[in-house]
Amino acid sequence: MASPLSRALLTCLLAMCAALSGEEKPLVRLRGSDFAGGAAGRFGGTFYGVSGVNYVYAESNGPLASMRATFQLDAAPGKPAFLHLRARDDDAAAACPIEIALNGKPLARGPSEFPSDAWQWAAYPIPAGALKAGPNELAVFNHAPKGAAGMPPWFMVAECCIAGEDYVPAAAASEDLLTVTLPIEKRPLPEDLPPGHTEPAFKVRGMKGWNWIPEQYLAEIPVLAACKMNFLMNCYLSMFTPGGNRWWEPLPDAKKKAYEEVVRACQKHGIEFCFATNPNLSSSRPLDYQSAKDLDALWAHYEWMAGLGVNWFSICLDDISKGIDAAGQAKAVNEILRRLRARNPKAQMVFCPTYYWGTGDDRAARAYLETLASDLHEDVYVFWTGPGVVTPAITRAAAQAYRDRVKHRLIVWDNYPVNDAQPTLHLGPVSGRDPDLFEAADGYMANPLCPQNEANRIPLLTIADYAYNPWGYDPARSIGQAIAHLAETSEQRAVLKDLVELYPGMLLAKQGTGWNPVLSRFREVAHSQQAADACLQRVQGVADRMGKAFPDRFKAAQRTLAANLATMRAELARKHPPPSPAP
Predict the structure, then answer these.
(1) Which CATH number goes with the domain that contains 132?
(2) Mean pLDDT over residues 219-239, rounded?
């Protein structure tokens, strides 16, 4: 994640920390796969971007509830030793009850202190005399009495070390998911089409907002046009009013005026604006698909946009808990499309179904999608996010399987680089998307960061590069070119490179939208004050340089950096409080 120079500096600092602690090398280093027992043999050993993992389930699963690793020592250590464990808890509300024992002596027993959303290191003191010359055994137990294999409660171990208290595990010091190489010269972005191709791969190429205000949409429209995107959809959250999702009421005049300006800006730049609502999300009055009155109220919004010359429209019924009725949904969508085409025969409709991911293999999804296949107007496009809601890989085969199930044309709604308005960034290039995905999908739309729409341009340019020319797409080249196109000076290019390496994106790490690599890395080394200080100073250095290189740009991203730094300082003060003043 760090640049070669910053990685070298960090490695040097961490080596100095280890030298100061007298522990340049651990006595023992084990991976989760070195533990016998556990459940890795049944369910595999790669999870959350880490291989060689093992884990334990509840006691009701017998041998899956414990795992043991043996190791040899030539002699017992002559100074205090600690077990450094890299682990994570399940995603249940309560922490998993665990026990960690060395040669039968408990080092920890009780609720797991590890998080459920990140790998983390923790250090446990080893009692004097617990380590011995010859064979030793380290054991991990899950003491929850009941639970099915494959379900919480579980506890995962990635690796562990036995060393001094301030030892910094090498994995935590060198988890570089992305190293950006800045180009010598700028190339076209997106990359020119290869010989024999005269049209972009995806017909529809663009993005939506994420609860953006009109000014954010206006700021990004010229960027979309410059990188040959042709589609912008409003976020349906942007259509909510201060009273919530009151879709049956007219929008306030000021909001309508602001979005009319957005539509005009799209038309000026050759961008198709797509108007979207979700009448059932967080609504006190979900749309009744059978009610003529409700359909008339919903139609009023679409009629307004149609009157502005808008050609593309969407009805989204994703992430809802009421109104999961495929036949009723199809009826409502068909009726709005009928009214739109009565005004404008070129009107297009994109429907986001409630089951908008996967391939419809489970019973409920299959029945739902088969009803859409038969009832939804044949001209309606369907949004699809991939095999999962957020996924590191989207293949042509998976897209074709979903398309075969729903029997409608697809537009991929890629949930990258969206952060769901959490204080983190995903800035690395889009990756893991098949070069021939366009064979199964007519369009490709990205879901962006919020509120950091300007920083969102970094991954957005790589998305534009991929959607236009997936045949020649190279993520490593594309991210370097994105920085080159967004920066004007060598100082700006260098700091954007380091910012991207700090926040390489959830796709590379196989994590979720809220994953924060800066805080995750900091927490892995926080048991060592020296290493934590070094990590904090690295992030502070990038923040300082961002402020200097971009005094008037990337303000939202700089606020994210500041928030992460504040969290790091607070956690460091709690974990390593300053000594009390002498009386």
Answers:
(1) 2.60.120.260
(2) 98
